[in-house]
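Email to the structure team, subject: Helix-turn-helix family protein model.

Hi all, the expression group asked for a predicted structure before they design truncation constructs. Nothing fancy, just the tokens so they can compare against earlier work. One-line instruction: predict Helix-turn-helix family protein, return tokens.
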Amino acid sequence: MNYGAKIKLERKKKGLTQKQLAKQLGKSESIIRKYESGNVIPSIEMYEKIANILDVPIDKIMVLPEQEKTEIDSFEIIYDFIEKYFNLYNQQHLIEKIPFPEQMELALNIKNILHNKIEKLTEFIEQN
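Reply from the structure team: attached below.
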């Protein structure tokens, strides 16, 4: 079930019309139709507002698009590779002795960025 169908289902369970939900959100009825038809993806903030009004956890109405799931998986694969490979070089003095220190430093920076991104995405998913 896509996110639009989930929003529609929960809205109907709550006994609200599209117009009533739109009014509570301070949005137009047409944007609710677009959400429910899958033509427009709500922002995270809008998902939170909708979930609060419908009195459901956000994951009840939110579906990660397949591309985002793939990106998360890709980040984890790259991170795991860098983590395994560079565990051998996790001390600063070793980085200085290897023949390609700039590339190693860049890879470590990428590792840190990926780690932070994975952490934030995981935290968001777990909270919702």
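The chain has two domains: 3-60, 66-127. The domain at 3-60 is CATH 1.10.260.40 (434 Repressor (Amino-terminal Domain)). Ping us if the truncation boundaries need rechecking.
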